[in-house]
Design goal:
Structural class: alpha/beta
Strand content: 15-25%
Helix content: 40-55%
Largest sheet: 5 strands, parallel
Distance between the termini: 23 Å
Length: 334
């Protein structure tokens, strides 16, 4: 009887998911007017938006990372700001500062570009650690402290960051504590031949498509509430936890060969974000319940920046993706 009742609940929830997902289909169509052939990147941006998580896009220059983020912000009726990270950037350039008002003979707060719904942190790895730490409070606490005052950031608040993996001169490694704050880290590849042909034709004409706002922040908020109700079975929860625990204690999962390659495993944020991202993935596929493929599909993006590699791994050119592949192959899906 309980199972029948649960099936009815899922059926009703599926109808609601389809209704809400209509708006996100429109959003995807609008983004795809400008971003051609980068479906993986667009899907991950939508998962970050729905999961209220920050996203880090890594790829060589010219893959439309910045354009994709800017287009998403234009298609959602929200505030957008861009910060170009450089080695001489100061924390005050990001969060804001106190300035002296001669008229009132007093100090007032001048808010920085971080006070927006969508903050594009372009080439985030070009800024020094003091700027990274200023952004850290904003990302984690959704607030900023300037002088004696703590100011809340607007809702939703998403940091959408890009970094270039090939140019090492003038770059700084992101601290592990900050990397862990990113819900997803996505590696963006070159477009396919035909997709690049379309891009080339589109950019070389004077008819550039204009992006219109197709959804507002209330649509996003409603969808988030619905996503929290998406059914996550106990077996799927165990599957997620087994995956994360295998990165910490590989020998307990029959993966002893990985032990010397891992300096530290994924944090509890990995489990939380895998569950949230899997629910968002199910929502985008018009489902009111999570299946193992939803978890597998998003696992690398959630885990790749949360597994620390040992010197041995770097010497043998073993990547975090290699480790995740072995974990996914070993852990049996329910």
């Amino acid at each position: 009887m309980a199972e029948l009742h649960q099936a009815e609940d899922i059926k009703q929830l599926t109808e609601k998911v389809r209704e809400q997902n209509y708006y996100f289909s429109l959003l995807k169509q609008e983004i795809n007017k400008v971003i051609i052939g980068q479906e993986y990147m667009v899907d991950r941006l939508l998962i970050a938006l729905l999961g209220n998580g920050h996203i880090l896009l890594e790829g060589v220059p010219g893959l439309a990372k910045t354009l994709a983020i800017k287009t998403l912000a234009e298609a959602v009726h929200g505030e957008f700001s861009r910060i170009q990270f450089t080695p001489d950037l100061l924390p005050a350039d990001v969060v804001g500062t106190m300035i002296y008002n001669v008229k009132d003979n007093d100090f007032i707060i001048k808010k920085g570009p971080v006070f927006a719904n969508f903050v594009l942190a372009d080439e985030i790895n070009r800024a020094p650690s003091k700027v990274q730490s200023a952004l850290l409070e904003a990302m984690q606490e959704k607030q900023v402290t300037i002088g004696d005052e703590t100011l809340p950031l607007p809702k939703p608040f998403l940091v959408l960051a890009t970094q270039n993996p090939i140019d090492q001169e003038g770059t700084y490694m992101l601290p592990e504590a900050q990397s862990d704050r990113f819900m997803l880290k996505c590696k963006i590849e070159y477009p396919k031949f035909e997709d690049e042909r379309k891009v080339m034709r589109m950019v070389s004409t004077s008819h550039q498509p204009k992006v219109q706002p197709v959804i507002d922040l209330k649509n996003v908020s409603d969808a988030k509430e619905l996503i929290n109700q998406i059914y996550l079975d106990e077996k799927i929860e165990k599957y997620i936890l087994d995956m994360v625990f295998a990165s910490r204690y590989p020998e307990k999962y029959g993966l002893s060969e990985l032990k010397n390659y891992i300096s530290f495993g994924a944090s509890p944020r990995a489990s939380i974000n895998l569950a949230i991202a899997a629910r968002c993935n199910a929502f985008l596929k018009n489902r009111a319940f999570v299946i193992p493929e939803d978890v597998k599909d998003i696992a690398k993006d959630v885990l790749r920046h949360r597994i620390g590699l040992s010197f041995e791994a770097e010497a043998e050119e073993v990547t975090s993706e290699n480790i995740i592949d072995k974990i996914l192959a070993k852990i049996q899906a329910p």
